[in-house]
Specification:
This protein is mainly α. The protein has 2 domains: about 70 residues, Arc Repressor Mutant, subunit A (Orthogonal Bundle); about 50 residues. It contains 6 helices and no strands. The longest helix is centred in the last third of the chain and has 29 residues.
């Protein structure tokens, strides 16, 4: 299951770099959860042909991630943005507990809001 999620995630990043046939087969197999037989029947090819196409596409997706690292970079940025949100919340908590500075509250809120906005995009 984890591999399926990983390949689906990579497909979101690199799917446009696959051939139309590979893109269609991966979409049907991973996102629409069709079996190899169902895809073969719809596409008018053999089950083995579908499997080969999926395996080639999987290899290409993994190879692209290895070379470009866009998905890893995206995950790292999301993790860091979450950390920024947590730190901004801690600053606000410390401020409320220790000094009640309006300026600190405003800055921490702006940092938190900017980080949350980036996480949503």
């Amino acid at each position: 299951m984890a591999k399926n999620m990983e390949l689906s995630f990579l497909f979101d990043f690199y799917g446009d770099m696959l051939t139309d046939k590979q893109r269609d087969v991966i979409e049907l197999y991973y996102n629409d959860d069709l079996s190899l037989s169902e895809i073969a029947e719809n596409a008018g090819i053999t089950r083995q042909g579908v499997r080969d196409s999926i395996k080639r596409a999987e290899y290409q997706l993994l190879e692209m991630e290895e070379r470009l690292g866009l998905a890893k970079r995206f995950r790292d940025m999301q993790e860091q943005m979450s950390h920024i949100v947590n730190m901004a919340q801690e600053i606000r908590d410390y401020n409320n507990y220790l000094s009640h500075s309006r300026e600190i509250e405003d800055c921490a809120s702006q940092i938190e809001n900017a980080a949350r906005k980036l996480l949503e995009e």
